[in-house]
């Protein structure tokens, strides 16, 4: 951002920078002036650390520019795209009434759009007027400002997220108030404001992201804890991160008991190899999820049929961070399927002309398959209908 005196578009009206000392101002006064602007910038920077929004920053900037920076009046205007104007949003000092009816356009093809403030806005460089009364750029506003006896002004652009936002304009009653050093300090001040605005936006984005994350976590937590399905999160080594109450109820364990059991202990031995093969594919990155029907062993040693769905959550390098598993108890469906198969197998045996002993053996075999761990028998009534006789009991002890 470079400082220019007035406008580059009209070299005849541009006034050269003239050191303060050449205009009869003592060295002490000059040093004092610079010290005040330095102090103002320092105070604003200290305030920026504590602030989090524009509503606090802009009023303080204007006040400090006057109280500590030594200018007569300071105001901040922000561009309004709908009205194509720069609208005053904050001001402080002597002459703020001037802003009540001020009209500054953001259009360069109008007289109100070729003044110091508008030029600083759309060219993104500071515009300095060290002889307000005789500068053609100030003509549209000279009558309004005559009562305030301003003779110098500086307009310094403010950006936000790399785009023009508005302008900080300051005024002084002395001619030639703005020398190169003073301009440099106010330029730095406007960049400090730009930095603060960008920092506010970054902080707001961070807070919004945290709010979204918190809301998502609450949503997931409610789903996890209140779900009718068993849910669990596991480390890559299959140790549990957390389990929900539905999974504990499904398997008959408390949370404390379940999180201390390895996954392999819960898997049915006949299904363990298939489970390990799919999980290894998750680990090596060849798949990101899988689902399968499998059997788990409850604390009571009973078997529960589940539909298991596992999803990998990966780090940025594609390594496995953890897995999320969803387990739905399908025992009733599997029981109904086994019963249907038992009826079908028995009818097929009858249709093929199987003997009574063969049919009874088929029934017992199917029943014991449907109810794992059970031993079944078939009893037959004698011809008189008075006694029960053993028809088939292949697995019962003698």
List the keywords.
six-stranded mixed sheet, 23% strand, alpha+beta, rod-shaped, Beta-Lactamase, five-stranded antiparallel sheet, single chain, disordered N terminus, 398 residues
Structure description:
The structure is a single chain. The chain has 398 residues and is an alpha+beta fold. The chain folds into 3 domains: 202 residues, GAF domain (Beta-Lactamase), CATH 3.30.450.40; 102 residues, Beta-Lactamase; 58 residues, no CATH class. It contains 11 helices and 13 strands. The longest helix is centred in the middle third of the chain and has 47 residues. The N terminus is likely disordered.
The percentage helix is 40-55%
Instruction: Please give the domain count.
Output: 3
- Strand line-up across the major sheet: 1-4-5-6-2-3
CATH level-two architecture of the largest domain: 2-Layer Sandwich
The largest sheet, given as strand count, sense and whether it forms a barrel, is: 6 strands, mixed
Number of H- or I-type helical stretches: 11
Give the oligomeric state.
single chain
Mean pLDDT: 85
Could you name the CATH class of the largest domain? Answer: Alpha Beta
CATH topology category name of the largest domain: Beta-Lactamase
User: How much of the residues is beta strand, in percent?
Assistant: 15-25%
The low-confidence parts are 1-25
List the helices and strands and how they pair.
Layout: E1 3-5, H1 27-50, H2 54-67, E2 73-80, E3 85-93, H3 116-123, E4 126-129, H4 142-145, E5 152-160, E6 163-172, H5 180-226, E7 230-234, E8 240-243, H6 245-251, H7 255-258, H8 263-266, H9 272-284, E9 289-297, E10 303-314, E11 320-329, H10 331-351, H11 356-370, E12 378-381, E13 388-392
Parallel strand pairs: 1-4
Antiparallel strand pairs: 2-3, 2-6, 4-5, 5-6, 7-8, 7-11, 9-10, 10-11, 12-13
Helix pairs in contact: 1-2, 1-5, 10-11
């Amino acid at each position: 951002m470079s400082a220019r005196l007035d406008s580059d578009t009209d070299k005849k009206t541009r006034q050269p920078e003239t050191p303060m000392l050449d205009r009869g101002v003592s060295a002490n006064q000059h040093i004092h002036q610079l010290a005040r602007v330095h102090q103002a910038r320092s105070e604003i920077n200290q305030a920026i650390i504590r602030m989090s929004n524009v509503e606090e920053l802009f009023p303080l900037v204007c006040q400090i520019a006057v109280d500590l920076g030594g200018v007569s009046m300071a105001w901040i205007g922000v561009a309004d795209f709908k009205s194509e104007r720069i609208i005053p949003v904050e001001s402080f000092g002597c002459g703020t009434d001037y802003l009540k009816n001020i009209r500054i356009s953001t259009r360069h093809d109008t007289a109100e759009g070729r003044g110091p403030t508008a030029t600083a806005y759309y060219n993104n460089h500071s515009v300095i007027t060290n002889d307000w009364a005789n500068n053609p750029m100030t003509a549209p506003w000279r009558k309004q400002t005559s009562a305030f006896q301003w003779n110098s002004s500086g307009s310094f652009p403010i950006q936000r997220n790399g785009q023009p936002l508005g302008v900080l304009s300051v005024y002084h009653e002395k001619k030639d108030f703005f020398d190169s050093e003073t301009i440099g300090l106010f330029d730095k001040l406007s960049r400090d404001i730009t930095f603060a605005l960008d920092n506010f936006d970054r902080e707001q984005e961070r807070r919004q992201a945290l709010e979204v994350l918190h809301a998502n976590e609450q949503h997931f937590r409610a789903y996890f804890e209140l779900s009718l399905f068993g849910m669990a999160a596991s480390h890559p080594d299959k140790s549990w991160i957390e389990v929900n109450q539905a999974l504990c109820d499904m398997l008959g364990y408390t949370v404390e008991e379940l999180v201390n059991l390895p996954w392999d202990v819960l898997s049915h031995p006949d299904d363990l190899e298939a489970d390990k093969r799919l999980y290894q594919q998750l680990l090596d990155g060849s798949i990101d999820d899988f689902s399968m029907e499998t059997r788990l062993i409850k604390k009571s040693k009973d078997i529960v049929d589940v539909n298991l769905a596992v999803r990998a959550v990966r780090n940025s390098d594609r390594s496995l961070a953890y897995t999320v598993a969803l387990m739905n108890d399908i025992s009733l469906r599997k029981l109904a399927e086994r019963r249907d198969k038992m009826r079908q197998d028995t009818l097929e045996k009858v249709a093929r002309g199987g003997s009574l002993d063969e049919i009874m053996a088929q029934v017992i075999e199917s029943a014991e398959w449907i109810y794992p761990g059970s031993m079944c028998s078939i009893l037959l009534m004698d011809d008189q209908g008075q006694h029960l006789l053993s028809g088939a009991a292949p697995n019962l002890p003698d």
